[in-house]
Design goal:
Elements (H helix, E strand, L loop, with lengths): L1 H23 L5 E5 L6 H17 L3 E5 L6 H8 L7 E6 H9 L7 H4 E16 L8 H10 L5 E4 L5 H13 L4 E4 L3 H10 L4 E5 H10 L3 E5 L25 E9 L4 H16 L1 H10 L1 E3 L4 H22 L5
Parallel strand pairs: 1-2, 1-3, 5-6, 5-7
Antiparallel strand pairs: 3-9, 4-7, 4-8, 4-9, 4-10
Helix pairs in contact: 1-10, 4-12
Amino acid sequence: MMWMQRFFLLASTILAVASAQAQNYPAHPVKIVVPFAAGGPADNYARFLAQRLQEMLGQPFVIDNKPGAGSVIGTDIAAKAPADGYTLLLMSNTHTVNETLMANKPFVLTRDFTGVAPINYSDLVLVAHPSVKASTVRELIAQARANPGKINYASSGPGTPYHMAGELFKSMADVYLVHIPYRGSSGARTDVIGGQVDLMFDAVTTMAEVVKTGKVKALATTGLQRSAVLPDVPTVHESGVPNYEATIWLGLLAPKSTPKPVIDKLNEAVSKIASQPEVRQQWAQQGATPLVMTPAQFDQYIQDDIAKWAKVIQAAHIKAE
């Protein structure tokens, strides 16, 4: 029986230490690795969240942009960080796509990370430079079929929501568009606005204001219902590609084995921020909807999204470029 007493004593000690860590957390600045370029939706919401976490928890939350390789570079850095709660990862559904799209990554999402909290989701909008003749999805489909390979679209890199939205559209609309991958969404957006690239699926939260200036024209949004931010723009679903849907969602991860009390404290803080009426209102005006889940629910959400995109990738024979 002595070994059982020692076991329970050890377990009690570990729990006590973890509880103390959570009570004192954070004791110094926390780094949030953003594996995407500055200026895009992921970076913008990471900075928004970091400022409010700092106000709530009393320590700086510092953004560290590490873009490249379709989010793999920054994600690998976060995966190798100490599991102490002082390095977090800003993820998007790029990560759940990459679990199938990129077989040789140096990490496995569900093996090397644990869910902290989701943040929000938003629709995308398919935009075209004004020089593109098509002004509707049906016109685009007709032109693409008549001129295969002559129309291109930009994305923020392989596996990103912008890329997958384009590949899903190609598959469901039975057209061929040339994919032009960029290192981040800002460069892709700039070149569509400048006319160097024809099209882009971009986050409504970022592109809506550009649409309103007339620098690009909106052909469709990607939710099953019209966007409240661009209510006059039809959905792809109602424009000739039934059941088409693509969104971008964001969340926070931590390296696996980060103490549960720390995870719970961060989840509580993020959930409080996302539930604040002024935050919900501000995000709604941008076209984003808050997501609130427990860590366990978020882990399941991630697993379900991996399975969802695996089916799409395999059925459409999508390859990393």
